[in-house]
Amino acid sequence: MVLLAAVVVVAGAPVAAEETWQRVEFDRGMTELSLWGALDTRAGDEAWLWLSGDVGFMLSPRHEVGPSLNVQIWLFDWEAEASGSCGGFYRYYIPVSSRSWAPFVGARALGYLGEPRDWDTEARVEGGFLHFLAEGAAISVTGFYARRFGLHNEWWVDEENRDRLGMSVGLSVFF
Known about the structure:
Strand 5 and strand 6 form a beta hairpin. The two termini are 32 Å apart. By secondary structure, this protein is mainly β.
């Protein structure tokens, strides 16, 4: 997954730069509504399915911040548990001359609202791109590395289960 995220960010910018007319531009004050799903895993023995929504606010043509609301489903050995989380995100859009691609890098912080696994918080770094299908409507693809912190019901920290790699796909609408 780390390799996939690196390829998306590094290779996506030059590919996007080949399209040189009517480049994608964001205006200060624009709002993004995004629905996305993600899958992250650790060593293949458990998986987390994410169903999420973000509301982003463009602070400038390159900087976006906003809140995030998530539902996570933990899957392991034919068992499943669901929980929620909320937090915020930041994205920096890499400037390229493209009519349909907008690569980005960013960070995300989440606080868990209970089960599963009783984690308190999570921090992520992410990179990906938006591919605009029409004016104001885009598909997003993101690779991420996540680190979880604090088991609030345990005095010890589960070192094996705190680092995650994942990928998300979503749909964004800008207005």
